[in-house]
What we know:
The chain has 142 residues and is α+β, with helices and mostly antiparallel strands.
Amino acid sequence: MILLHIGIMSALSQISRIRQRIGQLARQRRAVEQVLLERSVLLKGILLEVQRTCGKAGCKCARGQKHSCWQLSASVEGRRRTGNVPRRYVGKVKELTGNYRRFRRARARWVRLNAEMRKRINEMEAARTVPDFRDEAEGQKS
Length: 142
Ligand SMILES: [Zn+2]
């Protein structure tokens, strides 16, 4: 009887630890979901400032003052596509690609949190499951 009692107490403290962790994961997941549910527009890709020479003889770029342009590089259906970004759009493109990175980080975190959540829920099931109905009846009596 004492052994069963000790078993129940250790299961209870384990259940309480698992419950706390699940609560913590649920709060973290809700915070991450706030990011996923934002309305901001996402733009996939990396904005790059490219320095280059044009090849014209006597141009300033031949003396080291290279031309700079902005490019957006993104993988579309497995292929890397690069396009020029007009200077007036650089600010906007920076903002939207930043939104995309933020979304992707949140998404990855959401996936990790869910994986742990699933693991903890399985632990909870194992900790709360009695092997036999008589074990639960004994527990109620003590
Ligand atoms: Zn040039």
